[in-house]
Design goal:
Its EC number is 2.7.1.49, 2.7.4.7. Catalyzes the phosphorylation of hydroxymethylpyrimidine phosphate (HMP-P) to HMP-PP, and of HMP to HMP-P. It is an enzyme of class 2 (transferase). It comes from Micromonospora musae. By secondary structure, the protein is an alpha/beta fold. It is built from eight helices and nine strands. Strands 3-2-1-4-5-6-7-8-9 form a nine-stranded mixed β-sheet, sandwiched between helices. Helix 1 packs across helix 7, helix 2 packs parallel to helix 3 and helix 7 packs across helix 8. 54% of the residues are buried.
Length: 261
């Protein structure tokens, strides 16, 4: 049977743990055929980001056209956009309804702390998102309010949903506690998704992998709550599998393919 096609629009990670590289790994692991549009080239590894080169918006548009005129894309996701001009190029396709089941991962800061985007770029795409997946820091940056507790996550999810996304998942993996709690809000309903916290320093690309997994499940026909729950379980397994790995000297990547299962 022909696999479903999923599109990632994001920056590259030369270390392979996040961005385009992580997205394509997730697509393959979950049974989808991955296509990609590069928004920026980064020089990075597990220790940090050394350089970022945003691509011209016209080059981003050319890539989008090449993919969409040849493949039937079942779902799309965005990651690092880099600049508002690049975000505008992506928003043009989204506005025309050419990016189905769009998942917007508002990448603003890398795991290492390096800035990879601006709020204005993310805001251009939020009105077209079926699902937006900010972590607490990203939700705080976009809403302008602190997001450090579950109650504040709920408030942020509701505020972000009022700005356009059909569903918002504020992920709580960066908060302290025995559980990793994510907040899903959509259709006027708020759900707390609880799961065991994996004790590991290898968290590079967690957000990318989560949003990519959601996109795959949406392409396969899952409703949003099911897609989010499956993606959360997948990331938990990937974190668990890599917790004892020694890839790089910093925050290492996830076990996308279950090699350590």
């Amino acid at each position: 049977m022909t696999p479903r096609t999923v599109l990632t629009i994001a920056g590259s990670d030369s270390g392979g743990g996040a961005g385009i590289q992580a997205d394509l790994k997730v697509f393959a692991a979950l049974g989808a055929y991955g296509t990609s549009v590069l928004t920026a080239v980064t020089a990075q590894n597990t220790r940090g980001v050394d350089a970022v080169l945003p691509l011209p918006p016209a080059t981003v548009t050319d890539q989008i056209e090449s993919v969409l005129t040849d493949f039937t894309v079942g779902a799309a996701k965005t990651g690092m956009l880099g600049t508002p001009a690049v975000a505008d190029a992506v928003a043009t396709a989204a506005r025309a309804g050419r990016l189905p089941h769009l998942v917007v991962d508002p990448v603003l800061v890398a795991t290492s702390g390096h800035s990879l985007g601006v709020v204005a770029a993310v805001e251009r795409l939020l009105p077209y998102a079926e699902v937006a997946t900010p972590n607490c820091a990203e939700a705080a940056a976009i809403t302008g309010h602190p997001v450090t507790t579950v109650d504040e996550m709920v408030a942020a999810a509701k505020a972000l949903a009022s700005g356009g996304p059909a569903h918002v998942v504020v992920t709580g993996g960066d908060l302290d506690g025995a559980e990793a709690v994510d907040v899903l809000h959509g259709g006027g309903v708020t759900t707390l998704l609880r799961g065991p916290r994996v004790e590991t320093r290898h968290t590079h690309g967690t957000g990318c992998s989560f949003s990519a997994a959601i996109a795959v499940r949406l392409a396969l026909g899952d409703p949003v709550p099911v897609a989010v729950a499956v993606a959360k379980e997948y990331v938990n397994r990937a974190l668990t599998g890599a917790r004892h790995w020694e890839l790089g000297a910093g925050r290492g990547p996830l076990d996308h393919f279950g090699w350590s299962a």
